[in-house]
Amino acid sequence: MKQFVYVYILVSEVDAAKHYTGISHHLFGRLQEHNRGHCPHTAKYKPWRIETAIAFASETKARRFEKYLKTGSGRELARRHF
User: Fold this and answer.
1) What pLDDT sits at residue 82?
2) CA angle 71-73-10, nearest 5°?
3) DSSP state at residue 43
4) Digits of tens for pLDDT over the chain (82 positions)?
5) For residues 54 and 9, is the Cβ–Cβ distance under 8 A?
6) C-alpha–C-alpha distance, residues 28 and 34, integer Å
7) 76 C-beta neighbours (distance < 10 Å), count
């Protein structure tokens, strides 16, 4: 069986205004990496929790959706609906 690819949005437990969008095959392992400070983009605002995670069967579609969420209109979509 094919493994899912997850596009996720994290929210900082220190500052709820801080969000991070990423992609991973191993969602909970990746969250642990963020919370251990292994990612320079998220280390300052750890700990993090998963706010939204969407599973894709296609890595190509997941990467396109992650890229979209990092645009202005994608951030607004996430703010309003996730």
Assistant:
1) 86
2) 65
3) G
4) 579 999 999 999 999 999 999 999 999 999 999 999 999 999 999 999 999 999 999 999 999 999 999 999 999 999 999 8
5) no
6) 10
7) 10
27 contacts 5 by C-beta, under 8 angstroms? no
- Give per-residue burial for 21-51: e unless 16+ CB within 10 Å, then b: bbbbeebeebbeebbeeebeebeebbebeeb
Q: How many residues does the chain have?
A: 82
Number of C-beta neighbours around residue 61 at 10 A: 12
Is 59 in contact with 31 (CB distance < 8 Å)? no
